[in-house]
C-alpha cells in the first residue's frame, strides 16, 4: 500500500491516503469524484512532473463518503461564485423519521431547507394494510406513488365519495380541506411522495379523525351520531396518524359501500401518468408534463417528470411563473443555479434528494452518472411554464446577441432555434 505523497511529488502538504483501496494503481484509475473525496484533485503533468494544485488540498477533518457524493461542493467549478448562494439541496436521508406500526413518514419543509418557501415534501411508507388515517389540511396535497399500490379515499365538495387504487407513477391531488386517507395494499404496501403547496406545511399539524373525536365531549358525539355514549368507549385517546389494520377487500365493493345513495363523485382525484406519452423525447431523454390542463383537479400544483440518459442535459432554462421544488427519484446529476448579483452555485443530487430553484432563476440539470437520471420538477401553479435560453437568444436580433456574447454568425446560427428541453436531440 502506498500513500498519496508518493505520487504527488511537489505537495508536501497533501493528505496521506492510507485506505487499502488507494493503492497507486487504484489511485491513478479512480475518477475525479473519489479524488475530490480524498481531498485531492487529479495529478496534473507539468514539465514532465506530476503535480497537485496546492490550493486544492484539504488536510483537515473530512467525510470522504459525503464529499464523494458532492464533488461540486468539494471543489466548485471555476464558474461558481465566491459569494454565497443559499443552499438548495436537502437529502431525505437527513429528515426526522416518524416510525409507527404500519409505516413511517418524514418531511422536508422550509424548516429543513430554508430556501423552500413555497412547497414542502413528505415521504411516506405504508405496509400492506397500513393506513395514513382519515384527515384533512389547509394545504393542497399532490402525490406520486414511488413503489407498490395504495387505495386512496376522499369525498368531493358535494359529499360524494371517491375511492381508487393507485400504482407506481400514478398521481393524486386532494384540494385544501378535502378529507382523505391512504392505505397500502398487497403484496407489500406502498411508498409515495406528497408535495404540498406551502413550504410551512407539516404532516404533524393536520386535522386527524382520531384526534378530533378525542376532543369532543362524549355526550355531544352521542347527539351528533344518534347513538349511545357507551358506543364510543373505545375511541383512541391519542392520534393514530399511521396504524396497521387489515388489507381492504375489492375496490368495487369499497367504492359501492362508500358511494351509498349519493353516488360516486364525478371528479377524478387520481391521474395515470404513464398512460400519457412523453411530450418530448430526444436522444438525451424524455419529459412528461402534468398540470391542470390534463389533471383537472390539480389546480395548485404542476409537475414535469424528466428522465435524462447518461450525459444528457436538461437545457438551460427558467420558469417565469413559480419556484421549482425538485425530487430526485433515481440516478445522479448536478445543477447550477445562477442567482442575481453575480452569484452562482453548483450542487450534486442523487436519489432521495430535494432540490429547489427560486422563481425565474437560470438553471440546468446534467446527468453525471452512468444510469438514467429521473427527477420531478414541481411548481405551485395550475400550469407548467418554462423559457429556454436557446430559444430566447435565437429569437432576438442576431447582431445584438453576437455583440453580447462576442460570438460569430456561424456560432449564432448553430444554436438550437426551438426549445429542445432535453439534449442531445
Ligand atoms: Mn393529507
Ligand atoms: Mn426547471
Any idea what the CATH superfamily of the largest domain is called?
Jelly Rolls
Largest sheet: 7 strands, antiparallel
Shape: elongated
Span between N and C termini?
Answer: 46 Å
- Helix content estimate: 10-25%
* Helix-strand category: alpha+beta
CATH topology of the largest domain, by name, is Jelly Rolls
Number of helices: 10
Q: Write down the CATH class of the largest domain.
A: Mainly Beta
Give a list of the ligands: manganese (II) ion
Explain how this protein is built.
The structure is a single chain. The chain is an alpha+beta fold and about 425 residues long. Helices cover about 15% and strands about 35% of the residues. The protein has ten helices and 28 strands. It has helices at about 25-30, 30-35, 65-70, 70-75, 210-215, 220-225, 250-260, 390-395, 400-405, 410-415; strands at about 45, 50, 90, 100, 105-110, 120-125, 130-135, 140-150, 150-155, 160-165, 170-175, 180-185, 190-195, 205-210, 240-245, 270, 280, 285-290, 300-310, 315-320, 325-330, 330-340, 345-350, 355, 360-365, 375-380, 385-390, 420-425. It has a seven-stranded antiparallel sheet with strand order 3-24-21-26-19-18-17, with no helix packed on it. Strand 4 and strand 5 form a beta hairpin. It is elongated, with a radius of gyration of 26 Å. Mean pLDDT is about 90; it is low at about 1-40 and about 40-50.
Amino acid at each position: 500500500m502506498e500513500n498519496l505523497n508518493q505520487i504527488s511529488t511537489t505537495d508536501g502538504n497533501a493528505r496521506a491516503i492510507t485506505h487499502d483501496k488507494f493503492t497507486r494503481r487504484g489511485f491513478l484509475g479512480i475518477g475525479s469524484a473519489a479524488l475530490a473525496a480524498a481531498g485531492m484533485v487529479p495529478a496534473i503533468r507539468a514539465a514532465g512532473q506530476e503535480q497537485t494544485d496546492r490550493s486544492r488540498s484539504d488536510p483537515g477533518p473530512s467525510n470522504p463518503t459525503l464529499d464523494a457524493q458532492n464533488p461540486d461542493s468539494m471543489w466548485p467549478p471555476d464558474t461558481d461564485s465566491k459569494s454565497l448562494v443559499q443552499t438548495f439541496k436537502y437529502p431525505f436521508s437527513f429528515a426526522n423519521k416518524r416510525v409507527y406500526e404500519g409505516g413511517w413518514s418524514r418531511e422536508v419543509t422550509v424548516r429543513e431547507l430554508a430556501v423552500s418557501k413555497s412547497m414542502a415534501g413528505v415521504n411516506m411508507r405504508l405496509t400492506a394494510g397500513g393506513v395514513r388515517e382519515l384527515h384533512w389540511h389547509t394545504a393542497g396535497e399532490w402525490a406520486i406513488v414511488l413503489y407498490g399500490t395504495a387505495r386512496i379515499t376522499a369525498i368531493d365538495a358535494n359529499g360524494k365519495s371517491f375511492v381508487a387504487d393507485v400504482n407506481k407513477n400514478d398521481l393524486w391531488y386532494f384540494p385544501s380541506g378535502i378529507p382523505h386517507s391512504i392505505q397500502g395494499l398487497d403484496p407489500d404496501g406502498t411508498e409515495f411522495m406528497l408535495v404540498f403547496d406551502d413550504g410551512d406545511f407539516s404532516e404533524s399539524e393536520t386535522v386527524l379523525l382520531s384526534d378530533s373525536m378525542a376532543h369532543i365531549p362524549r355526550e355531544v358525539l352521542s347527539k351528533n351520531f344518534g347513538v349511545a355514549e357507551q358506543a364510543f368507549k373505545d375511541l383512541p385517546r391519542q392520534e393514530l396518524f399511521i396504524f396497521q389494520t387489515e388489507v381492504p377487500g375489492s375496490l368495487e365493493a369499497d367504492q359501492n359501500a362508500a358511494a351509498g345513495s349519493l353516488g360516486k363523485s364525478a371528479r377524478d382525484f387520481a391521474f395515470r401518468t404513464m398512460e400519457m406519452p412523453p411530450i418530448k423525447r430526444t436522444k438525451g431523454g424524455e419529459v412528461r408534463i402534468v398540470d391542470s390542463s390534463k389533471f383537472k383537479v390539480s389546480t395548485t400544483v404542476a409537475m414535469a417528470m424528466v428522465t435524462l440518459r447518461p450525459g444528457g442535459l436538461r437545457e438551460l432554462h427558467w420558469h417565469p411563473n413559480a419556484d421549482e421544488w425538485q425530487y430526485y427519484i433515481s440516478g445522479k446529476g448536478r445543477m447550477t443555479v445562477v442567482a442575481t448579483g453575480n452569484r452562482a452555485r453548483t450542487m450534486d443530487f442523487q436519489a432521495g434528494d430535494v432540490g429547489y430553484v427560486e422563481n425565474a432563476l437560470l438553471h440546468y440539470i446534467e446527468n453525471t452518472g452512468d444510469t438514467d437520471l429521473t427527477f420531478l420538477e414541481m411548481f405551485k401553479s395550475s400550469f407548467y411554464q418554462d423559457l429556454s435560453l436557446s430559444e430566447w437568444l435565437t429569437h432576438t436580433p442576431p447582431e445584438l446577441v453576437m455583440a453580447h456574447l462576442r460570438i460569430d454568425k456561424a456560432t449564432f446560427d448553430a444554436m438550437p432555434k426551438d426549445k429542445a428541453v432535453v439534449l442531445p436531440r
